[in-house]
Amino acid sequence: MSDVLRVGVAGLGTVGASVVRLLTKHGEKIALKSGQTAEIKAVSARNRARDRGVDLSGYAWYEDPVEMAEKADIDVFVELIGGDNGPAESSVRAALSRGLHVVTANKALLAKHGVSLAELAEANGVSLNYEAAVAGGIPIVKTLRESLASNEITRVYGILNGTCNYILTRMEAEGLSFEECLADAQRLGYAEADPSFDIEGDDTAHKLAILTSLAFGTKISDESIYIEGITSITTADIQAADELGYRIKLLGVAQRTDTGIEQRVHPTMVPKASAIARIDGVLNAVAVDGDFVGEIVLVGPGAGGDATASSVVADIVDIARADKTAVLGMPAAHLEDYTRARMRLHEGGYYMRLSVHDRPGAFAEIAKCMADEGISLESIVQRRATRAVNAPGSGGDSAPQPVILITYETTEVAVKKALEVITEKGVVSHPPQMIRIEKLK
Amino acid sequence: MSDVLRVGVAGLGTVGASVVRLLTKHGEKIALKSGQTAEIKAVSARNRARDRGVDLSGYAWYEDPVEMAEKADIDVFVELIGGDNGPAESSVRAALSRGLHVVTANKALLAKHGVSLAELAEANGVSLNYEAAVAGGIPIVKTLRESLASNEITRVYGILNGTCNYILTRMEAEGLSFEECLADAQRLGYAEADPSFDIEGDDTAHKLAILTSLAFGTKISDESIYIEGITSITTADIQAADELGYRIKLLGVAQRTDTGIEQRVHPTMVPKASAIARIDGVLNAVAVDGDFVGEIVLVGPGAGGDATASSVVADIVDIARADKTAVLGMPAAHLEDYTRARMRLHEGGYYMRLSVHDRPGAFAEIAKCMADEGISLESIVQRRATRAVNAPGSGGDSAPQPVILITYETTEVAVKKALEVITEKGVVSHPPQMIRIEKLK
């Protein structure tokens, strides 16, 4: 093994610049710990003129990352371009095919092409590391690939998107609307100009797809994920959750069931006393339930240039130490096919918020619909809606009243059916809100 | 590399039996993931007749672990005997000297002999893994040795003893005395018959000594740790903390300062909103502050046969994968000497609880002592002590009154001096209680 591990970095955004700074600042420490000096030899980005706050003059410059992957004198190709196809995919494939180790922070790429990239890495006898692709600075990939390798995992779940958690935290803390908090997140750089990828749950789903494969030894299947974002969450939901002893978090959950593996991303009511309820702001958290270890929870920054760079460089250090883990925890040929669980059988408690027409018998109709589906109710909160004193029509008319229902454990199919019937019967003025309640420690 | 990694387990208590069960139950999974089948070939314990709930008939039996280390046909020697000398130490040294990999859960052994054992492992080109020695099932050793290898660590701290955390949690939740909670912990098997090693802070100190070395790249120095246990904590302290927005936890803290590295174990008041305040019962938690990663927190079971076995087997899996990390994160020869920080310069807020004689001018004297040492007070809580209505002498005499003081940031030397003067002047009826306040996120 050479004394120097030659690194090429493709993509020089915030994370790329932090990787350059980290390798420069702590190069000696890394050499001492890993036995090899990791030195950047080449970089790739489109705009050479842009000031990135780091000195890039000593590195070979490639405008085309594929060209860098194919030609640069490097041992490790670091992909920080992003996107599940285009130059990210083609440069990673070129690097692996050439026998370079690859480090990437690209969750979309892994979620879509993880298995075929793992096969390519194996065929070429190189590492494909991606600690930064899931939960930023949190070492969850290593924990699942290595530390918990001997456990039978029953569930992995977490807060995997800092943008959503920031919005939900502020909505709760300050009683602000979703739109106000999103605007603040955008102003502070926690959300993109087009935030849909985060707030609709797709980013969480990509990360969950990777965690599922690592936890259960199945092929990555990001198309089998039930996804619901946080855009429908209102301050009324947040307040009701608070009063009932819950907080609302966007969770990604993967769980082994009798019928297969369930993967779902949706706003979830979690008990205030649970570890996950207490993760605030842009932090991420991942919990893993294993048959021997019990439950462990890892908490930390899920994004940010420096935290993400910490994970990228950890992957480089593993390569410098000649530590080769199977890309997806075991040889790709041994991964089981992913069998999707019948989500309709998912059991748990449910929260429902209905805007009920204020007319005689409305509540009896709701109660009957629930009973017809065998749903038992744990709590019912009906509260006269606040009205502006001088608002027109505020004198005893039939303005809709909010009704909150919490069910005991029941099935999703029963809840959806009941809500459908309630809506069809015209008992409610707006589409009902439904949020799943997760049993957590 | 052979297809089979032959394992010998010395010590067949709760953890040893769990290791046997785990390797038996998940042997195939481990083989798939690591490329080698880890098979137990030999075991060692004194009492062969005892029923341990696992079938040991297929393994060679050694009464003497040293003999097993020297003679058994094994590749990995697993030490689960315990103790910082005697058969644990001699068998580990024999195994390393013979060129066997060693896995141990023995924090006392590592704290006392870690550096010389690391040197011995290096000289023989074998691994010495000890994930289970710190915080049970939590993968903190791997996280520090590998995932955070490229970070400059500024602080590592945590709840490292489940017995103490269980006692403090119950004292707070139920208003019970230390003695009552300790008795319960003993009845439930969370505390030993002789609990002093846990409740006096020594167990936490051993684990902290290991974390310090990994975090700061210094030689292990468990004799330089300031240690204070939880035996002096009363329900009055717990209640006062609660009212002031804090919880009391036994923390191990290692921190880089201008004068060296500070290692301390003591009851600590932590803000209720901090992640560490919310770790209840027998759980452990470890937080690490790194210059790039920021703060990450790992939470999980700190003890228990199965959780500990999970970490022991994770170490075996690393050996099966031929992953060799430097025992203490870097070659032992490169570890810096440990320089103890001047603890007297430690700065932070302090909580003091005084039993003040109820006489004119007492409070003025206290205030003057604090002012003389330059201590600013953030809160002062003086509350007339509750007295039994018919208690003798309850009618306006001079029974001591509890006074709670919270200081702004000051130095330990100032606080100790002030308390000394207050005591000398006879203002207080009992030795003052002093608890450090830790600034945490």
UniProtKB/TrEMBL annotation, chains A, B:
Pathway: Amino-acid biosynthesis; L-methionine biosynthesis via de novo pathway; L-homoserine from L-aspartate: step 3/3; Amino-acid biosynthesis; L-threonine biosynthesis; L-threonine from L-aspartate: step 3/5. GO terms for biological process: methionine biosynthetic process; threonine biosynthetic process. NADPH binds at K107. CDD domains: ACT_HSDH-Hom (cd04881). L-homoserine binds at E192. It holds the Pfam family ACT. Keywords: Amino-acid biosynthesis, Methionine biosynthesis, NADP, Oxidoreductase, Threonine biosynthesis. The active site is at K207 (proton donor). NADP(+) binds at A10, G11, L12, G13, T14, V15, G16, A17. Residues 351-436 form the ACT domain. Its EC number is 1.1.1.3. One of its GO terms (molecular function) is NADP binding. Belongs to the homoserine dehydrogenase family. This is Homoserine dehydrogenase.
